[in-house]
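$ ./design --mode recover --in tokens.txt
reading tokens...
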């Protein structure tokens, strides 16, 4: 780590004093699925992605400002066949601040994670682990072939995703997390089945409330399966015990089954927002910095890098952007405006 990047201003904080430690990097906005809560279902379209070296430079500057956790996303990131190269590049970076928030020129390793739909995962899981990936999350929104195909609009794919989960476990990327976006009328009948799946397959299950980020702009509060409903239904099957958060900024509220078999969590941005402890930034596949999923503006970090500016100037630009980070989203409130981009354009 370049000691200059540690800077006199300390680690990156927004205007509300929140430390920014987590970065989600979308390496493509292409996807081989067209999930009904995300895409329109039409084919084609224009896509934006950058050379991996461009993402690596932007990540390196952000790591120098205090980012400690990197999550690679898409679209579907495994459509980038060169993804292990980026993982190796990020693995060589070191944290700029220690656990007490003090600058260090020889910090510990970053936490590197990946979110994927799992369709292409099985053949590459071991390569990802060897490249330096720590953790993996697989998005899977149903546990039967018919519902899975109806949600993803990809027939015959469920088995490939299940194989990907098992391959990730075998590669040492365990415990694998599985994310399920629940939305009423499509897969809300899957809650109990996913509880059993978490217990049987030794995965950490995360239910996610449906957010207004879909291309079709069909979201309504009535479509949201809330945290309270999920916990009530699971609790009727198996007693649940709350678990201590891993960090103050963790998005999921965690629960363990009372008999010790398995863990589930609920990410509830609609019914129980967690904005007060937000530690995240997002970098879109075309190099735009976003301070919130629901931002109305993008900040062209990649454009700045093309002006042949030094890292110090990029650092100053990032600090100015982050100072304007939103205090919270306003989902469901009067006057709420959906973000300027849909989820697939922002990065999952």
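writing sequence...
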């Amino acid at each position: 780590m370049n000691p200059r990047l540690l800077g006199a201003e300390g680690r990156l904080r927004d205007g509300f004093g929140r430390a920014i430690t987590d970065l989600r990097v979308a390496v493509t906005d292409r996807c081989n699925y067209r999930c009904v809560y995300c895409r329109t279902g039409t084919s084609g379209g224009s896509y934006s992605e950058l050379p991996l070296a461009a993402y690596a430079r932007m990540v390196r500057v952000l790591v120098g400002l205090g980012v400690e956790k990197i999550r690679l996303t898409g679209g579907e990131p495994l459509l980038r066949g060169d993804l292990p190269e980026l993982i190796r590049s990020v693995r060589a970076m070191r944290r700029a601040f220690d656990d007490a928030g003090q600058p260090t020129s020889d910090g510990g390793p970053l936490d590197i994670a990946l979110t994927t739909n799992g369709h292409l995962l099985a053949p590459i899981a071991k390569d990802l682990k060897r490249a330096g990936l720590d953790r993996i999350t697989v998005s899977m929104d149903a546990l039967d072939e018919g519902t899975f195909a109806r949600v993803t609009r990809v027939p015959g794919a469920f088995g490939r995703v299940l194989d990907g989960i098992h391959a990730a476990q075998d590669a040492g990327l365990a415990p694998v997390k599985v994310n399920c976006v629940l939305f009423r009328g499509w897969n809300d009948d899957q809650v109990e089945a996913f509880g059993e799946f978490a217990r049987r397959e030794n995965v950490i299950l995360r239910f996610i409330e449906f957010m207004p980020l879909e291309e079709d702009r069909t979201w309504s509060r009535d479509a949201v399966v809330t945290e309270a409903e999920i916990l009530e239904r699971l609790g009727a099957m198996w007693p649940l015990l709350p678990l201590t958060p891993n960090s103050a900024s963790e998005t999921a509220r965690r629960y363990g089954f009372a008999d010790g078999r398995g863990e589930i969590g609920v990410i509830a941005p609609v019914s129980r927002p967690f904005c007060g402890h937000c530690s995240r930034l997002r970098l879109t596949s075309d190099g735009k910095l976003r301070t919130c999923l629901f931002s109305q503006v993008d900040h062209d970090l990649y454009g700045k890098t093309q002006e042949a500016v030094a890292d110090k100037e990029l650092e100053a630009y990032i600090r100015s952007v982050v100072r304007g980070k939103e205090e919270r989203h306003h989902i469901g409130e009067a006057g709420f405006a959906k973000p300027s981009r849909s989820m697939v354009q922002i990065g999952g």
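exit 0
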